[in-house]
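User: I'm curious whether this sequence folds into something compact or stays loose and floppy. Could you predict its structure so I can see for myself?
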Amino acid sequence: MPLLNRNGTNIYYEVAGPEGGRTPLLLTHGYSASGQMWAGNLPALTNERRVITWDIRGHGRSDTPDDPSQYSEALSVEDMAALIDLVGAEQAVIGGLSLGGYLSLAFHLRYPERVAALVLCDTGPGYRRDEPRAGWNAMVERTADNFEQRGLDGLASSAEVVASQHRSATGLARAARGILAQHDARVIDSLPTILVPTLVLVGADDAPFLGAADVMAAKIPRATKVVLAGAGHAANIDQPEAFDQALLAFLDSL
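Assistant: Here's the prediction. I'll summarize afterward.
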């Protein structure tokens, strides 16, 4: 089982596709999903480039540290950088869905020189105002409490979650409080500074994220927005062929 040791925390990852091909693609899953959510897309995406998928701390086959301080946006971004180092790349196309998309934006904020392009799927850039951020964080706390009380029975039935397996509900609770929670407006305020080509992709039926997709497409100078008909929050699973076609067309344009 491929594991990357990050100061005592083992991060599970997989690498598929040819060495020496085009710029690699790093894909990050959503909260309470895992890298398994990309399995159906990899055959189409790995013809010409390496694709790295992985499990965020507390998720899937990665470790679930006991120390809550080992779960944070900053540590997740450093895990992403280490995975790019692992394949010997200076740059990668950085992409993800939901939490994975937000972490991709956070990665660009920390390491803009390492981002060849961004792929932001069914995600949002966080909150500028305190009131909606507080509402989000209240939802995060309810989610964490649910996992602590119900264990893995607390998992949702959405497609990307069903496609994943987890070792620990406690890890998911800690990841909610440490990684999913929002603290400031740094990421949303960074949108106009993103100068790399950016694909903003959203399922037409993913109502909570349609507005966020509009905001990102308007604020990011080189953004292209794609709305996938018949897709909800897990657009890559709901409409895999259309998702793959849209992503490959974007990658081919780089």
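Summary: The radius of gyration is 17 Å. Residues 10 and 117 are 27 Å apart (CA to CA).
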